[in-house]
Design brief:
The complex is a heterodimer. By secondary structure, chain A is an all-alpha fold. Chain A has 12 helices and no strands. In chain A, 49% of the residues are buried. Chain B has a domain of 180 residues: Rossmann fold (3-Layer(aba) Sandwich), CATH 3.40.50.300. A 6-stranded mixed beta sheet of chain B has the order 5-6-7-3-8-9, sandwiched between helices. A 3-stranded antiparallel beta sheet of chain B has the order 2-1-4, with helices on one face.
Chain lengths: 278, 267
């Protein structure tokens, strides 16, 4: 596999430290946003929604290459468009929600793969897109991660209270004056931003794991929504550092190693004696 | 306390309202008015359009025709029928109440004592009983200091004593706050005691008026024949759901299109 050989070459080069430091800084930046966003994904049962959007990100990459724009920008644009399409399709009653998600997730992923394949002249590292390429992170990637991450976190913070109200009971929130449509649109933008930012670390196919697993692990030890969001960010950060270290140690692919580290943390939290839970 | 029409214009007034879902007419030229300080109760069999009527009043569903007039800047406290919160969301009763908006401490204490949820504040929302949840939902509505309280089957899932307590509390709160109350119910006997005006709904308004007048109205009796038996002291139980022809339980509120006569809440 190309990434594995790449990791091995990197290990042998003197510039290894730079690669690792950039990877760790990028990974921590990503975990800091996927944690709090992941809490909402778990509360709102949107894991498959996030997964479908992540799949559509490949189409974003493909279109970005096709028209020659920055792929981060095209990922965000495609994710928002697909999110709106999903919301519209979920309002019809003919097909169940998970069926709609399945159609769009794999339809957009396949379209992305086909469009990528049609561009004979551009060499695209598909493996890196699908499973992440954390060790090839550049300084400009870091700017994107931290720039996008800060915007996403600021938006989420701004939306926090109304979004929580809508999550608890949509009609009640609406009667109490929350602009539900605006809040939901804002939330879509946050998800699209975070997907664009997180693809570098774990890739398209594993992205949802970074949303769901740290939040699920944090649930067990949290008594307020805010505590769960912060702990999810911390657990995600530890997973990134642990996964990267493991990847370096055993020459394993970085993205899957980060996800496995998160799963191990989740399992450890589950083994904790059940204390006072809320 | 009798409604006092002299205290001003109607809080809400609905005229000639119709709502259709596809081929089904859920509400058919319905009129409804709630005055300040008045308790108006909408009763009717399952699938009669009661919840849809509330949703239109709340602005959650748009009518196909007819007019809905709310008094300017009307503060509405809404108590939904039920609430299901995912177990993954760690939320105490206190946080749930705060989501409705911030309220001065003294005022908050007063409301919570009144409704009897003070001791529940630090409990996770998912761990309180059905009766406690109804009180918490009522507290959230009251904390908005509403001019109009809208309650959708407030006593749902409570035993008879709990229902009586809750309706008594609602009547008492109306007296203290002076707010209008619009509620939906099918617990007929208990509601009768706590309403100024009853609207009997089965897609259209069958009859309306003071509780005792409605209780004797032939259209009402045709809709609820079991009331006559109950008044003789014989135990009857109310069906809280309808059955489709196949015998499966169907969602009462989406189950529209009954014939008016002969549909006595048993579908």
């Amino acid at each position: 596999m190309p990434t594995i050989t790449l990791a091995m070459t990197i290990k042998a080069t003197p510039a290894m430290d730079d690669f690792l430091i950039r990877a760790a800084i990028g990974g921590i930046g990503v975990a800091a946003v996927t944690g709090p966003l992941g809490a909402f994904v778990v509360w709102r049962r949107m894991a498959y929604f996030g997964d479908a959007l992540a799949h559509s990100a490949l189409l974003g990459v493909a279109l970005g290459l096709l028209i020659g724009s920055n792929t981060n920008v095209s990922i965000i644009a495609v994710c928002i468009a697909v999110a709106l399409l999903l919301v519209a399709l979920q309002r019809q009653r003919y097909l169940a929600s998970d069926t709609v998600l399945g159609i769009l997730a794999h339809g957009t992923l396949s379209l992305g793969l086909v469009v990528v394949a049609l561009q004979g002249s551009v060499r695209v590292d598909l493996f890196a897109l699908l499973f992440g390429d954390v060790l090839a992170m550049t300084v400009s990637d870091l700017y994107w991660i931290y720039g996008g991450g800060v915007v996403a976190l600021a938006l989420l913070l701004w939306l926090w209270r109304p979004l929580l109200a809508v999550t608890v009971h949509e009609d009640l929130a609406r009667v109490e004056g929350v602009n539900v449509v605006a809040v939901q649109l804002g939330f879509m933008v946050v998800i699209a931003l975070v997907i664009a930012v997180a693809i570098k670390i774990v890739g398209i196919l594993l992205l949802t794991s970074l949303l769901v697993i740290p939040a699920a692990a944090a649930r067990r030890v949290s008594s307020t929504p805010e505590m769960m969001a912060i702990l999810a960010a911390l657990i995600g950060t530890v997973s990134v550092i642990g996964g990267l270290s493991g990847s370096l140690q055993w020459d394993t692919p970085a993205g899957p190693s980060v996800v496995l580290a998160a799963v191990v943390l989740f399992a450890l939290v589950m083994l904790l004696p059940a204390g006072r839970r809320t | 306390m009798a409604p006092d029409a002299s205290t001003g214009e109607a809080l809400i007034s609905v005229s000639d309202l119709s709502v259709r879902f596809g081929e089904t007419t859920t509400l058919d030229h319905v009129n409804l008015t709630v005055l300040p300080g008045e308790i108006v109760t909408v009763i009717g069999p399952n699938g009669a359009g009661k919840t849809t009527l509330l949703r239109v009043v709340l602005g959650l569903t748009n009518p196909d025709s007819g007019a809905v007039r709310r008094r300017k800047n009307l503060r509405i406290g809404y108590m939904p029928q039920s609430i299901a919160i995912d177990d993954t969301l760690p939320l105490t009763v206190r946080r749930f109440l705060d989501l409705g908006g911030r309220v001065p401490k003294g005022r908050r204490r007063e409301v919570l004592d009144n409704v009897g949820v003070q001791r529940l504040l630090d409990q996770p929302l998912q761990r309180i009983s059905g009766g406690e949840m109804q009180r918490v939902l009522l507290a959230r509505a009251l904390l908005r200091d509403p001019e109009l309280l809208v309650l959708d089957e407030p006593a749902q899932g409570l035993d008879v004593v709990g229902q009586a307590d809750l309706y008594e509390l609602i009547g008492q709160l109306r007296g203290e706050l002076g707010c209008g109350v619009l509620m939906v119910s099918h617990d007929l006997h208990l509601v009768m005691a706590a309403a100024d005006s009853v609207v009997c709904l089965n897609h259209h308004v069958c009859c309306t008026g003071a509780p005792h007048d409605v209780a004797e109205n032939p259209e009402y009796l045709a809709l609820f024949p079991e009331t006559q038996i109950a008044s003789l002291g014989i135990y009857t139980h109310h069906h809280d759901h309808a059955h489709a022809v196949t015998g499966e339980v169907v969602d009462a509120h989406d189950h529209a299109g009954h014939d008016h006569q002969g549909d006595a809440g048993h579908g």
